[in-house]
Amino acid sequence: MDIATGLGLVSGMVVLAAMILMGGNLGMFLDMHAFVVIFGGASAATLIRFPLSAIFHGLPLGMKFAFTIRRMSQRDLVDELAGLAEIARKQGPIGLEKVDIDDPFLAKGIRYVADGYDTTFIRDNLERDRDNFLTHLDEGQKIYRGIGDCAPAFGMIGTLIGMVQMFANMTDPSKLGPYMAVALLATFYGAAVANLFCLPIADKLQLKLHDEEINRTLIIDGILMIREAKSPSLVREMLLAYLPEKHRHAAEGDDAVAVAA
Question: At residue 69, does pLDDT exceed 80?
Answer without folding.
Answer: no
